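Appendix B, record 7
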Amino acid sequence: MARQKKTVITCAITGGIHTPTMSDALPYTPDDLATQAIAASEAGAAILHCHARKAENGFISIDPKDFSTYLPRIKQATDAVINISTGGSVLNTIDERIAPALAHSPEMCSMNMGSMNFSFHPLAKRYDEFKFDWEKDYIKNSDGYIFRNTFADIENAATQLAPHKIKFEHECYDVGHLYNLKFCMDIGLFKAPIFIQFIFGILGGIGSDVDNLIFMKRTADRLFGDDYRWSVLGAGNAQMSLGTTATQMGGNVRVGLEDSLFISRGKLAENNAQQVAKIRRIIEDLGCEVATPDEAREMLDLKGGDQVGF
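Structure tokens (predicted):
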């Protein structure tokens, strides 16, 4: 496919893996979520990938009311594309996970393209004490989590969200997920142009090696031709290096405290905007331009910020 002219930066603000003990910078109150999201947009993120948390203890929330405490503030202060996760929590059903998107009708949602082991249990050994009592067991027990996204789940989510004209960030954690996506396109669930997020480095998914990126890209080229746009999420210490490689291959990039708590090896990021500013500087220093929200909308064929429900 032809190389695009500008690079879209997505920022994933908080996610469902990291817990408050791991970094004081991880936002979980409505004020912190809104403030960090707005700052990330101002730093150059065209798309803001959003989860919600419980304000009192940082626990992961898929309650639409918890999204409503901060999404309108982002909408009022920025022109960024809002992308609501339908992954949310690996402990909930697909109907529960898509409830925030149904309630708020964003321009974009994430859509996980296959079931998988999804674990971050090694992180439990790094901390002797935790800020909140839910954190340790949540992390430790993730070695038994299965992130369920069956074909029936995917069709259910796509069908329920179809009236909202939402486009998807198709999250592909392994090469088989690309074939799942192709099957779903063939039966009419999704229409081009699709937006694929290649995800590397999650325990249970494909590793964060450049060879794997090249293989995923070649596979997607063969399956989707000119009908897709793509981005790279490198988890943990692969965030900046693999993301930079993707931008030089003509792709887009995702950063944010959902995916990595660090700004450089061994140094915690101060906030989401710091990561956005770093990848933007790298992109521009290498001779590329960063896309605005409206340019991202055009590239991904989005419905527009005036048609959301918040």
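Remarks on this record: Residues 39 and 272 are 8 Å apart (CA to CA). The mean pLDDT is 96.
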